[in-house]
């Protein structure tokens, strides 16, 4: 639950900054699409959330 709320806040902030700074581009539209999937609860959203959780655990396991 904490990971999805963090993901929504992070992606929302990134989308807002992209919109204010550069206008929307293809890469920005991708971030906005991911933001929409996290907020919407469509049939593909669980797969996207699982991918986000998998990426977070991968990044969390990196030792410096």
Short précis:
This protein is mostly helical. The protein contains 3 helices and no strands. Helix content is 80%, strand content 0%.
Poorly predicted regions are: none
Q: Class by helix and strand content?
A: mainly alpha
- Ends distance: 27 Å
Let me know the average pLDDT: 77
Beta-strand segment tally:
0
Biggest sheet character: none
Would you write up a description of this structure?
With 64 residues, the protein is an all-alpha fold. Helix content is 80%, strand content 0%. It is built from three helices and no strands. It is globular.
List the helices and strands and how they pair.
Blueprint: H1 2-21, H2 26-40, H3 45-60
Helix pairs in contact: 1-2
Note the main attributes of this structure.
3 helices; mainly alpha; 64 residues
């Amino acid at each position: 639950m904490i990971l999805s709320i963090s993901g929504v806040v992070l992606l929302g902030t990134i989308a807002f900054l992209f919109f204010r700074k550069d206008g929307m581009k293809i890469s920005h539209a991708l971030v906005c699409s991911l933001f929409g999937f996290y907020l919407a609860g469509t049939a593909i959203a669980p797969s996207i959330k699982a991918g986000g959780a998998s990426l977070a655990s991968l990044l969390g396991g990196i030792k410096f």
